[in-house]
């Protein structure tokens, strides 16, 4: 992986609550690289929040914007990019990342994910009556796809500093 890394960005994928933003920020700081979060970038360019975008334009529009933003972010050289949980489901985005980035799946179990998204109302996909069931369905659908990432790092309920260290170790 170290060889493959070269000047490529390190791109974190995985479900909501896996810790992509927190771990990504920490990894970037340890490696002295810039950090960027695709949801935050989308909010900056659209001047709307993610829930507002879902509400106003619907999920397909959000996904199209997300793919464009990520395509731009990966062109900007070596950095750490945390992506929104659905970004890696886009086949074009996956192909682009396979070519231009090193991808890391932050894999977590259902309890860990639910604990971390628990008190936050900023995930439109989890507004359902039974968010735990939705999360389980997303795990079933997405885990086989996330598994295509270059590396998998298990994100457990320990301090995320530990996960960041493990991620850097996995990079070789
Ligand atoms: C989504 C994950 C969110 C955000 C949007 C949709 C998803 O990002 O992009 O709510 O489809 O899993 P995080 O994974 O950063 O919460």
TrEMBL record:
Q: Which SUPFAM superfamilies match?
A: P-loop containing nucleoside triphosphate hydrolases (SSF52540)
Q: Give EC number(s), comma-separated.
A: 2.7.1.71
The protein's matches in CDD domains, at most eight in alphabetical order, are given as: SK
Q: In which pathway does it act?
A: Metabolic intermediate biosynthesis; chorismate biosynthesis; chorismate from D-erythrose 4-phosphate and phosphoenolpyruvate: step 5/7
What does the record say about how the cofactor binds?
Binds 1 Mg(2+) ion per subunit.
Q: Which cofactor does it need?
A: Mg(2+)
Q: What is the superkingdom listed in this entry's lineage? A: Bacteria
Annotated GO MF terms: shikimate kinase activity
Amino-acid positions noted as binding ATP in the UniProt annotation, renumbered to this chain = 17-22, 123
InterPro entries, per the entry: P-loop_NTPase, Shikimate/glucono_kinase, Shikimate_kinase/TSH1
Q: Where does Mg(2+) bind?
A: 21
UniProt keywords, alphabetically:
Amino-acid biosynthesis, Aromatic amino acid biosynthesis, ATP-binding, Cytoplasm, Kinase, Magnesium, Metal-binding, Nucleotide-binding, Transferase
Instruction: Say if the entry is tagged with keyword ATP-binding.
Output: yes
Please state what class of enzyme this protein is: transferase
UniProt-annotated location(s): Cytoplasm
Query: What main location does UniProt list?
Result: cytoplasm
Pfam families of this UniProt entry?
SKI
> So where does substrate get bound?
39, 63, 85, 142
User: Which reactions does this protein catalyse?
Assistant: shikimate + ATP = 3-phosphoshikimate + ADP + H(+)
Q: Does the keyword Metal-binding apply?
A: yes
Per the entry, what this protein does is:
Catalyzes the specific phosphorylation of the 3-hydroxyl group of shikimic acid using ATP as a cosubstrate.
User: NCBIfam families this protein is in?
Assistant: PRK13946.1
Tell me its family. Belongs to the shikimate kinase family.
Q: How does it assemble?
A: Monomer.
Q: What is this protein called?
A: Shikimate kinase
Q: Which organism is it from?
A: Jiella pelagia
Gene it is expressed from: aroK
């Amino acid at each position: 992986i170290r060889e493959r890394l070269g000047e490529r960005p390190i791109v974190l994928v995985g479900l909501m609550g896996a810790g992509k933003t927190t771990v990504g920020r920490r990894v970037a700081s340890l490696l002295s690289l810039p950090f960027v979060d695709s949801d935050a970038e989308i909010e900056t360019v659209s001047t709307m929040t993610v829930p507002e975008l879902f509400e106003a334009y619907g999920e397909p529009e959000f996904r199209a914007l997300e793919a464009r933003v990520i395509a731009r972010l990966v062109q900007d050289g070596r950095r750490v990019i945390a992506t929104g949980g659905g970004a890696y489901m886009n086949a074009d985005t996956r192909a682009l990342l396979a070519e231009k980035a090193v991808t890391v799946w932050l894999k977590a179990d259902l309890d860990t994910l639910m604990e971390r998204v628990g008190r936050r109302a900023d995930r439109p996909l989890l507004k359902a009556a039974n968010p735990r069931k939705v999360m389980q369905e997303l795990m079933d659908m997405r885990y086989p796809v996330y598994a295509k990432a270059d590396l998998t790092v298990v994100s457990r309920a320990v301090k995320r500093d530990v996960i960041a260290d493990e991620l850097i170790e996995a990079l070789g």
